[in-house]
């Protein structure tokens, strides 16, 4: 019998239709992946199944679990069902747990809520659940608090809560998006094992097609609240009938058309040189008069970036790549070593005007990195503040227009506010802001990580165009191996503050030498070869 | 999961175990070395604040233009009277010596002698504290008892009529001046209904009930505006928390909206509420001057007011120091409560 049956489900909030005639079904033991870009309605489909919707929503269609009509149930009956028959795992493990309750209490709560267990029994059950999800008792007693755990460990706690009652259906909404690749691989393995062991049906919602291809038995592709294509994974990967599905897969596998790397004389002075850089953070003192201990975030890092070169820097969160980026930008003092930009050393007091002009940066979050009260013209001319010969008047307007045209926007956009732009357009504005001083080097700190695949493909194309048009050098910092592989000539791998491997990007990815590089590459899910459709 | 059988015969034990109140449940005992470090750091900061505050109070009065003795005596004073007062106040000695004498004196409970009343300041302050401190505690208790339920009620019914009514009432509570409200209380409960006396304090010798009875109207007058502010803070803190991801997780576990609010929302929303309660206590202790005036209560506020009018610098200096001490002490206690509420703070200082 079908476990979950959704037929012609429509949802509107106020006057806005959100989901239109969504139909899908899940069998026991089956993994169904719902995929699509942001705004496609995948998460709301999950919340609709749980009936955890905001007020003023209108629902129509059919929704049943094990033959029971969910739309006919009262809120009280739904409370009995949530957590009991349907478990849910959310995207953001850092905020999904109550910070002031121990993990044991939070797992026990599900058990106490849905069964007649005593606290002692619930405690024993919570213990065995945490053991099952890979949090053993000696290192993770029930009394631990969420802030004492890493993101991956917290996600394991959330999973333990979700499977506590052995639900018939488990819904995982982007369960690994916020995690590093190696952690992602472990969590996906765990989910797969749980589905197999308990015979649960599972819906996994993700925008990552490689994860989809790797995990799912069936795939549902959504766009703007509608299901555009559905089928078994093998068949859908092989045929990809709908143009949107084709576009999604093409964008995921996108290779930007980079100009050939400029061959520079290795004897010439590098544009950016990092020599034995060390950055220590003081740790809290253990005793009042004990000497302060340090955490070494960047540990004797050395590398050089030549003119016209695109250099990648990969590593997992906490490896020190952001600290290194900030040090290069002059935002972090070094405790040892030095950084030279075009031969001149960065002083501890920040960059000189000329260094500022030569080096710009694009950050990850296109929503948080702009002042919402300033117009675009003011936002993108901000780098001029640190530059000695900043243009004024008409000159300045011309430079704004030039930068906006270069990133594919209109000069008229200079007079608009940032909230009037989409995420992709904002990232274009961030690039325009970096271009305005006509720099030689641009740092991209996870600059495409927050973007949808199709937008990401466009931005990568734009970066390739700019690279050939202006002869720029890039330092590309990312945890996304696919993007780094497609955008860089040379690559550095960072672990625990040290560069553990470096080399030509293609060589490094096809024949990694260091065990850490190998584990990173092995953990990253890969889209199957679409030409043959083999998974 | 193995089905869990319930032994019928042991139901009361089961019920006791399962629904034991939150505070009696087995939890990890707070990490004592960590808590100890937090406590020590807070205590250190308390002492440093007190010492710095004493410098500021002492030296501000020092740098103020003119001679304290001639200031205290007014413009028509004779030079020999001023000289006599100067030596009486010890102004002939060096600043540092005087500061040390003043500070060590205070540590031993000697606040000096009031120039106007010719009585030890410590005695005067102690008398007033016996009115002001109970009044502040009484008012704060009332305000908390009113505000927390009202704020929680409004947050749970966001946008509905209950919320609108509570928010309207708090708006009124913030807007109405408390002396006017105090007069209305006197008019209704003292003059018309004759339930309370219109003013004055019977003293603790008349028994605690009688004393509290005579503090009731002032406490209500002080509490309501504070309750209005606190209820709004409680509501908005709770609404912020209700938008958090972990509330959604709790709902996905099967908790109803109300259960999620009580079990997961409340404790998280307490931090801003505790901060406001701390601030309000300090305010109630010293800022009750108008209410003390309306109800004719011999409190600290009136003492300061009278001392300033009489230019009695010794009293002003001592009372200000005492109030600073109270404010810093309350903040210290609030900091300790933070650590009890939020395990994340325990390791920090």
From TrEMBL, chain B:
Keyword set, alphabetical order: Cell membrane, Membrane, Transmembrane, Transmembrane helix, Transport
SUPFAM superfamilies: MetI-like (SSF161098)
A Pfam family hit: BPD_transp_1_N
Xref: Gene3D superfamilies: MetI-like
Domain (ABC transmembrane type-1): residue spans on this chain: 129-334
Annotated GO CC locations: plasma membrane
Cellular compartments annotated: Cell membrane
Membrane topology: Multi-pass membrane protein
InterPro entries on file: BPD_transp_1_N (IPR045621), MetI-like (IPR000515), MetI-like_sf (IPR035906)
Residue intervals passing through the bilayer: 43-64, 135-156, 168-191, 211-231, 269-291, 319-341
MF-aspect GO terms: dipeptide transmembrane transporter activity
Broad class of the protein's primary localization: membrane
Highest taxon of the lineage: Bacteria
PANTHER family: DIPEPTIDE TRANSPORT SYSTEM PERMEASE PROTEIN DPPB-RELATED
Family: Belongs to the binding-protein-dependent transport system permease family.
Protein name: Glutathione transport system permease protein GsiC
Organism: Phaeobacter italicus
